[in-house]
Amino acid sequence: MGNCCSVQIGLENFIIRGLDPIVGHDNYVCKLKQTLPTLSVALQELRALRNDMQREVDPAEQRLLKPFERVQLWLSKAETMITEAEKLNADGPQQMNNLCLGGCASKNCLSSYKFGKKVAKMLKKINDHRSNGAFAKVAESQPAASVVVRPEERPISQESMIEKVWSCIEDKDVGVIGLYGLGGVGKTTLLTQINNKFSATPNDCDVIIWALVSKHSDVGKIQDRIGGNIGFSDAFWKSKSVDEKAVDIYGVLCNKRFVVLLDDLWERVDLNQVGIPKPSQENGFKLIFTTRSLEVYGEMEARKKIKVECLGPEKAWELFQDKVGDETLNSHPDIRKLAEEVAERCGGLPLALITISRGMACKTTPGEWKYAIEKLKRSSLPK
Ligand SMILES: Nc1ncnc2c1ncn2[C@@H]1O[C@H](COP(=O)(O)OP(=O)(O)OP(=O)(O)O)[C@@H](O)[C@H]1O
Ligand SMILES: [Mg+2]
Description:
3 domains, plant defense, Rossmann fold, NB-ARC domain-containing protein, single chain, alpha/beta, 58% helix, ATP binding, binds adenosine-5'-triphosphate, binds magnesium ion, 16 helices
């Protein structure tokens, strides 16, 4: 029986040794002693590379950035390879036990030959895959939403307001957000910051629509401004009736996750009439509007109402002196003190601070500044 086996081993060894030069392969059985430990190291390195890449992909996905397809493909191939290589690694000890004659022959030659060949192939596959896994970036940095960035001047002290509005946007329970405040307090400025933040911060909205409403806007005008953002801007469309436009707008918006920013409402806007779908948790739609009127503020049924406040004394002075400039402030020993009083009399209202500081930027005599203070004493600016 024993003799019979050794004859068989010899025969298989002979056949396989004979096969290698014909098919151009190395002797997989003889090399198993080196290739198996090398495979184990390569497997460890592939796992480490896969983990590192996944660590980059996970936070990108959390920020709603889409990983590149080539990176996803690399990761899924790596996963399959790791599983296959782990299996070979696990079978390794058994296969090594089969080797005899210093590792150059096997008790089960055909099986060892196939196994050795698999190990060598897997090693090559892993090495090739590792060298293809050097990606400079794993995900796109483009935000999801389509938004037209509006010109902006960095406002002073609006960061916390921006964050407050943004957290309402992220709150699924909040559909309509109202920003209320005095004329010139910074409502449009704040809304502009929000609009532009959509372009810089990943989010799950498809389109951001800006529409200036203003005092004498009727439904048709509001529809034209919204339509212009979603591809309805030709004269034919503009000539349609309010009802027809509402159907068109509704049809587009219903199929998108969108945010409508309505700036400067003077009266209630009937969303149905315009064609704006009612915000709900399911559609994720948001409407943010600004108004000076407390009445409108209530009538729009805002789920979240945010009052835009005047600047505090320090921030008001910061804005004022920035606009007047040091040259004027230092042009006479009395001017800085007088300027501080002028700034104070602006009541923290950004529009007043900006308009007056610009007007005073070329005034270099104390008399001119005293005159300004007298005029401000008689103004109706917030105290
Ligand atoms: N926080 C701020 N820092 C710097 N400048 C500001 C700030 N807020 C507003 N401004 C400036 O003040 C002026 C008025 O601001 P804005 O138009 O935003 O006011 P508003 O509240 O929209 O007024 P209205 O009710 O008339 O529409 C603008 O020139 C704007 O750049
Ligand atoms: Mg405004």
